[in-house]
Amino acid sequence: MAWYQYNNEYPTNGLPQRIRTLDGKTRTCLWECSESELESLGFSTVSDPPKYDDSFQDLVWDNETSNWSVQITTDPQKISDAWQESEIYKEKLKIKLLEKVSVHLQNGGTISTNFNNALTILDQFNQNNYSHPFDFNWQHPISLGYTDDVIAGIGSTEIRLVHSAFVDFITETYLPNKKY
Which domain holds residue 123? Predict the structure, then answer.
């Protein structure tokens, strides 16, 4: 179905069932009109909007350029929900890290004092340190700050623990919901 804009209003997918013309008359059966008739009534066709994720993005129409754009949402409810979701994810990931460390220690392994960096990084993901909950991706350790520089002080066994915790977290959190 084609997208139409009527008198510079926000575009819609398809034509409305009826409109009120400038002379006050009601016009129906718009789908029967030719393109030139639609134009004379104030309609113009516009491009299809791009795909976007409604959970954190907004679709915006620019009348001046006649273009769509996708922007990070400004909806307070969506932002609040995302911060709450981030807190849940942070706690789940922290639990996974601590479970891995606990099993490792029970099996006679050791942990360096630098391993605390892995937990400290998680504590930094909050509204005090980030302007937007969409600035990071819980599925990608690098976007969360788990870079080579940060984990340089921990041993390869500890890096495997962090990696394993992320794999378990992503598998249990994202794959069942297909939110990736």
Answer: 76-173
